[in-house]
Amino acid sequence: MKQNDQRIGKLKKKILLILYAGLALSLTKSPKKHLQILKQIPKEWGKINRQALNRAVGSLRTSRLVKEEYHEDGTMTLILSENGKREALRFNIDKMKIKKPRQWDKKWRVVMFDVPERLKKLRNSLRFHFRQLGLVELQKSVLVCPYPCNKEVEFIVEFYDARKYVRFILADKIDNEQHLINRFNLS
C-alpha cells in the first residue's frame, strides 16, 4: 500500500477525494451533511492548478481510477471507478480520528469481530485500523472505546466489506473497567 501512495501524488489524492465527496453527497440524506460536504469541495478545488489538474486527470484515467462519460452537449463527467472509490476510501481511512467529547457519557463502545482463519489478513487489518483509531483491546478480537465511534467503525467495516464478521455494542459497564478508565484518563 505504501508503494501505491508514492504512485498517487497529492493532487491525484485530492481529485479522488473530491470525486468521492460528490458520491457521498449523492448518498447522504441529511441536509446538515450536505452543507458540510459542499463547504469543503470549493476550498479544495480552488487550490488546484488547472494545468496540473489536466495532467493528473489524464493520469487517473490511465490508472483506471476514474472513467469519462461524454454528453451530447459537449461536456464530460468524470466518474470514480470501483478502484478509485477504494483508493479514495483508503486515503480517508488513514486520516480518521475519533473526536473526544468534553465529558465522558459513561458508556463503552465495544467492537467484536470473529473473522475466519482463512481471512487472517482481513482480521489483522481490522485490528490494526481499530487500534489506530484509539480502541483498546479487551481481548484478542474485542476492542473498546469510551467515546462515540460508531461512524468510524462503520467506515472501516464498509471499507473492508466485513459487516458479517463485526458487532458493535454500547455498554454501561465492564466488570474490569477501572484499568480502562485509567488507560483513557477518564477519572
From TrEMBL:
GO terms for biological process: DNA-templated transcription. Residues 102-177 form the Transcriptional repressor PaaX-like central Cas2-like domain. It comes from the Bacteria. This is Transcriptional repressor PaaX-like central Cas2-like domain-containing protein.
